């Protein structure tokens, strides 16, 4: 696959990355043999970026990736690792941590589990409520200077936090949910800020957690995900699936699946909004092969307008997460009015 720089000073990456969370953290964890085969299939096809976190399976995901790599694979793969999600022995999330001591301790364990001497992109998974972002990024910067980290990333943060972090150390990319069902980054300043500062974007949730696959069917009862993903709630699901069906004729016209069309749409946004890489979650090799075909789909301006007409921004019913989870997202906070807008101190 053709590659592009992830941000002005970032590494060259393929337009599609492999998100590994579902291999370790899911309602039905992947078979390990399938997961390892999926990682190897992705690397053989030209995927260069593997996205993981130390809390995916509480270390299991990093260990899985280490076991999946063959001789010579480390030289062609980039590890993007998130940290800061704290979990209890029952697997429940119990907090967000960003103190410098935790940053360094977490990396030490990640390096051991991944079997490597450095991480290519290291990022806090969420903005820690009790630690200034400057302290967290400052600690990662020290790890960059020491050679343990190559680049620094962010995840689910808003424009103000992006600017504050970038002032401490150049940021490689911001990981954010972005899809035809989640287009707030277009209007809340996140994509504009990244483009202005030369920061790349790694977009996850490009298939809206399965809704945009075109193969999801409404279950007889309530989908378990409805408790934390309101778009799967019965009050919203029918309307959202109707939106997905609007894409089917457009996908058929290209001879591709709805999932491939939705993925190609995200990749195509790089032409207008700076470097955007689609992070695809797959747990079986054939899913990787299907997803990667989307990188070769060329969408014309006419195609993009037709897609926008089929699913306008903001058309999806329901918020992307339940209220308790939305409250943890700095990316969802409304910026305070500026002096320029109000004419007074805010």
Automatic annotation (TrEMBL):
<dbReference type="InterPro" id="IPR023210">
    <property type="entry name" value="NADP_OxRdtase_dom"/>
</dbReference>
<dbReference type="Pfam" id="PF00248">
    <property type="entry name" value="Aldo_ket_red"/>
</dbReference>
<dbReference type="InterPro" id="IPR050791">
    <property type="entry name" value="Aldo-Keto_reductase"/>
</dbReference>
<keyword id="KW-0560">Oxidoreductase</keyword>
<protein>
    <submittedName>
        <fullName>Oxidoreductase</fullName>
    </submittedName>
</protein>
<feature type="domain" description="NADP-dependent oxidoreductase">
    <location>
        <begin position="15"/>
        <end position="310"/>
    </location>
</feature>
<dbReference type="InterPro" id="IPR036812">
    <property type="entry name" value="NAD(P)_OxRdtase_dom_sf"/>
</dbReference>
């Amino acid at each position: 696959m053709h590659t592009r720089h992830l941000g002005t000073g970032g590494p060259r990456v393929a337009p599609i990355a492999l998100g590994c969370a579902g291999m370790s953290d899911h309602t039905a964890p992947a078979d390990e043999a399938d997961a390892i085969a999926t990682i190897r299939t992705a690397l053989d096809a030209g995927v260069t970026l593997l996205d993981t976190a130390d809390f995916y399976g509480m270390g299991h995901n990093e260990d899985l990736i280490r076991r999946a790599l063959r001789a010579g694979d480390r030289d062609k793969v980039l590890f993007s690792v998130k940290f800061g999600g704290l979990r209890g022995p029952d697997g429940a999330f119990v907090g967000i941590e960003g103190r410098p001591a935790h940053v360094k301790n977490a990396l030490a364990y990640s390096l051991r589990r991944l079997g490597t001497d450095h991480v290519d992109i290291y990022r806090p998974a969420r903005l820690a409520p009790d630690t200034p972002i400057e302290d967290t990024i400052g600690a990662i910067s020290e790890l960059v200077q020491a050679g343990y980290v190559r680049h620094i990333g962010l995840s689910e943060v808003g424009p103000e936090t992006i600017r504050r972090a970038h002032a401490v150390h150049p940021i490689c990319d911001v990981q954010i949910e972005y899809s035809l069902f989640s287009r707030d980054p277009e209007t809340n300043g996140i994509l504009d800020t990244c483009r202005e500062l030369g920061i790349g974007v790694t977009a996850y949730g490009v298939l809206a957690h399965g809704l945009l696959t075109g193969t999801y069917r409404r279950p007889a009862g309530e989908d378990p995900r409805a408790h934390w993903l309101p778009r799967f709630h019965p009050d919203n699901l029918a309307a959202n699936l109707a939106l997905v069906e609007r894409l089917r004729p457009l996908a058929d016209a290209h001879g591709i699946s709805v999932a491939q069309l939705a993925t190609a749409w995200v990749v195509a946004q790089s032409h207008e909004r700076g470097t955007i890489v689609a992070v695809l979650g797959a747990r079986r090799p054939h899913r990787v092969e299907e997803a990667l075909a989307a990188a070769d789909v060329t969408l014309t301006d006419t195609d993009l307008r037709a897609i926008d007409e089929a699913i306008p921004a903001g058309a999806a019913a329901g918020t992307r997460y339940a209220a308790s989870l939305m409250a943890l997202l700095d990316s969802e906070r409304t910026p305070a009015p500026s002096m320029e807008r109000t004419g007074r101190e805010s």
